[in-house]
Write a structure and sequence with these properties.
about 130 residues, mainly beta, four-stranded antiparallel sheet, six-stranded mixed sheet
Length: about 130
């Protein structure tokens, strides 16, 4: 009886690891800030879609909050660049919200409440 109980306990412990195919979740906060390296356009208008290059973004688009000045929008898509270069390994696309003020606006990406650099900007043209 003890051997049977020991075997059951060992089997239960061994089965706790999941499928074994992917031992890590797909979206783990690293507590490192995202980094924006560039935006595909120096200027755009509300309603336009822009592409943001960099790294440290979430693979789940809804977890990437993109802020233009003081107005935020959720990213529409995420993609991985293979091969990446010059710090550009990931891209986000996002539609510029209608209520973004005209003029130069800093752009930031927030992932898991950690915000990127704010030294990249876009000129919003009405």
């Amino acid at each position: 009886m003890r051997k049977l109980a020991a075997t059951i306990v060992i089997m239960l412990i061994a089965s706790c690891g999941g499928s074994g195919l992917d031992p890590y979740p797909n979206d783990v906060p690293t507590h490192s800030p995202p980094l924006i390296t560039r935006i595909d356009s120096e200027s755009a208008s509300p309603g336009d879609t822009v592409t943001i290059y960099g790294l440290g973004y979430s693979i789940i688009p809804a977890y990437n909050l993109v802020t233009f000045g003081s107005v935020s929008a959720v990213a529409d898509s995420y993609d991985f660049i293979d091969p990446g270069s010059d710090g550009e390994f990931e891209i986000l696309t996002v539609v510029i919200p209608d209520d973004v003020e005209a003029g130069i606006n800093p752009v930031m990406v927030t992932v898991h409440r950690i915000t990127s650099n704010d030294d990249v900007s876009i000129d919003i043209i009405p």
